[in-house]
Amino acid sequence: MAHLEAATMNETVERLSKAFSIQKLPVNPEIQKKRDELLQCYQQNPGKTLLCSEVVKDFSRSVHSSRTVSLQKFFEEFD
């Protein structure tokens, strides 16, 4: 009985390790472009970060959207 529990636990650990392993994902070109725009805004407006608030919002929306799509794809693998 203990052998079965250990085998099941080892199996579960292996599955979780694969599921949550850190893997380098390809850079989304849209997000990279928005990131560059944000950095450029900060460089052009030193000490005036509020002037970049719309660029920050745009960047944040893009990142959120990309994360949502990635999570949907991740969970579709388990259906």
List its salient traits.
79 residues; mainly alpha; 3 helices; elongated
> Stretches where pLDDT falls below 50 for ≥5 residues?
none
Mean pLDDT: 85
Kindly name the structural category. Answer: mainly alpha
Radius of gyration: 20 Å
Distance between the termini: 30 Å
Largest sheet: none
The total of beta strands comes to: 0
Q: Percent of residues in beta strands?
A: under 5%
Please count the helical segments. 3
Helix content: over 70%
Report the principal-axis shape. Answer: elongated
Order of helices and strands: HHH
Report on the structure:
The protein is mainly α. The protein is built from 3 helices and no strands. The protein has helices at residues 2-19, 29-44, 53-76. Helix 2 packs antiparallel against helix 3. The longest helix has 24 residues, at 53-76. The chain is elongated and about 60 Å long. The model has no long low-confidence stretch (mean pLDDT 85).
